Amino acid sequence: MSDFKIIIGLEIHAQLNTKSKMFCCCDNDSQGKKPNTVVCPICLGMPGTLPMPNKEAILKTLKLGKALSCEIPNYSKFDRKHYYYPDLPKGYQISQYDMPLCIGGNVSLELNGVMKSVKLNRIHLEEDAGKLIHLSKNTIVDLNRAGTPLVEIVTEPVISSPAEAKEFMRSLQKILRQLNVSNADMEKGHLRCDANISVIRSDQSSKIIEIKNLNSFKFVYRALEFEINRLTSDFEGNIGPGKQTRGFDSKRSQTYPQRLKEEASDYRYFPEPDIPTIDTTLLKIEEVDSELPSTFVLRVHEEYNLSKEVAKKLTHNLELMSCFIVLEGKLNHDSLKRSANWLANEKILRINPDLLVTLNRSIEKSEINSSQAKSILRSAVDEEDIVQQIKKFRSNDGRDIDGVRKIIDKVVESNKKEKEKYLAGKKQILGFFIGQVLGELKGNGNPEEISQMLKSKLDGK
Ligand code: ZN
Ligand code: MN
């Protein structure tokens, strides 16, 4: 199996937790309500009704897009995606085709201590369909869910293992909840995942398999694992272009074939004539959820003992806040606190959680000190750059260990009184010496190492 390259892309649907549905005034929360009672002519798809786009849903989508560093085009539109199904009485779903609200972006995740940033293709907004309930003799339909706003988050095909796919889902769930755009409860169907997978050996690729409707982290993992085994054990039988759609039987932990996959042309996409183009420059994202920043400030103040000023600064900029949210759980308490202070107070060239994690790991290993980290932060453009700069600091330290020793000798010689105090038992004066040496080194030294060298010098060892 090791000579196969695995290529996974995910499409995630997340229900937005807005007050009303996507195109009508119906309550968006039908939890526990009788079937077909939270409906109106618009979401029932009656002919002649007109959809009214939900501003809160559009703002929440843009908020998510900003937090995931997507590009927000100035204009966006809705399109009709045609297909027939009993849970879709209109015969088409209002979705977005070629002008989505958000383009690109990324979600970072950590797997076995390694950070990875998963590139997104797009995020668009659409309406959900109703639900079919299969009874023993017949099937009935509940349209309470019809018209619920959904964001569809599409990744590039850059995920390389089932474990990575699972971590991606976890990471995304956390961000959706922290930003308060979705409750993202997989058991309740707020967050659903379709996974595309193919395997490649030498120049040959298997068909692309789309596994539909995976509704738990465990199922995402198990379905992909099953599919990798199936595709690699009969690679010859699965070579070729084309797509196949499969479902997942969680009881047997197996996938099974479903209908043939439609091509985009089968949906006959065309612009929704009843909704004008959206000018995103006229929308103020800050309008939505004014209560979120204050709960965020209180939470990080209490959990991490950060000053309220620092916490407030983070909430003023969505990019800073989402970076902090991604860092939670990846960094230990001290490093997280340090990062929050950096984010709030330093001029950082590129705000990216991966870069901050790399820097903090390096401080934790005493490879660099925090003032060196800060100077890297101000100039680093990418991970490679950071690694190079860390190397440079380290080689400066290592190369000139004799130079450091000379400076220590000089500092100790020119501060005789302090040396006497130290020898008389006032050990805290060591900090004064370390400061003097670091000053001479212009912040380049490793405090830990200098402290050791100073001790042996002062103690005459
Ligand atoms: Zn309605
Ligand atoms: Mn969709």
Automatic annotation (TrEMBL):
<dbReference type="GO" id="GO:0006412">
    <property type="term" value="P:translation"/>
</dbReference>
<protein>
    <recommendedName>
        <fullName>Aspartyl/glutamyl-tRNA(Asn/Gln) amidotransferase subunit B</fullName>
        <ecNumber>6.3.5.-</ecNumber>
    </recommendedName>
</protein>
<comment type="similarity">
    <text>Belongs to the GatB/GatE family. GatB subfamily.</text>
</comment>
<comment type="subunit">
    <text>Heterotrimer of A, B and C subunits.</text>
</comment>
<dbReference type="InterPro" id="IPR017959">
    <property type="entry name" value="Asn/Gln-tRNA_amidoTrfase_suB/E"/>
</dbReference>
<dbReference type="InterPro" id="IPR006075">
    <property type="entry name" value="Asn/Gln-tRNA_Trfase_suB/E_cat"/>
</dbReference>
<dbReference type="GO" id="GO:0050567">
    <property type="term" value="F:glutaminyl-tRNA synthase (glutamine-hydrolyzing) activity"/>
</dbReference>
<dbReference type="GO" id="GO:0050566">
    <property type="term" value="F:asparaginyl-tRNA synthase (glutamine-hydrolyzing) activity"/>
</dbReference>
<dbReference type="GO" id="GO:0016740">
    <property type="term" value="F:transferase activity"/>
</dbReference>
<keyword id="KW-0547">Nucleotide-binding</keyword>
<dbReference type="InterPro" id="IPR004413">
    <property type="entry name" value="GatB"/>
</dbReference>
<keyword id="KW-0436">Ligase</keyword>
<dbReference type="Pfam" id="PF02934">
    <property type="entry name" value="GatB_N"/>
</dbReference>
<comment type="function">
    <text>Allows the formation of correctly charged Asn-tRNA(Asn) or Gln-tRNA(Gln) through the transamidation of misacylated Asp-tRNA(Asn) or Glu-tRNA(Gln) in organisms which lack either or both of asparaginyl-tRNA or glutaminyl-tRNA synthetases. The reaction takes place in the presence of glutamine and ATP through an activated phospho-Asp-tRNA(Asn) or phospho-Glu-tRNA(Gln).</text>
</comment>
<dbReference type="InterPro" id="IPR023168">
    <property type="entry name" value="GatB_Yqey_C_2"/>
</dbReference>
<keyword id="KW-0648">Protein biosynthesis</keyword>
<feature type="domain" description="Asn/Gln amidotransferase">
    <location>
        <begin position="325"/>
        <end position="458"/>
    </location>
</feature>
<dbReference type="InterPro" id="IPR014746">
    <property type="entry name" value="Gln_synth/guanido_kin_cat_dom"/>
</dbReference>
<dbReference type="InterPro" id="IPR003789">
    <property type="entry name" value="Asn/Gln_tRNA_amidoTrase-B-like"/>
</dbReference>
<keyword id="KW-0808">Transferase</keyword>
<keyword id="KW-0067">ATP-binding</keyword>
<dbReference type="InterPro" id="IPR017958">
    <property type="entry name" value="Gln-tRNA_amidoTrfase_suB_CS"/>
</dbReference>
<dbReference type="Pfam" id="PF02637">
    <property type="entry name" value="GatB_Yqey"/>
</dbReference>
<dbReference type="InterPro" id="IPR018027">
    <property type="entry name" value="Asn/Gln_amidotransferase"/>
</dbReference>
<dbReference type="GO" id="GO:0005524">
    <property type="term" value="F:ATP binding"/>
</dbReference>
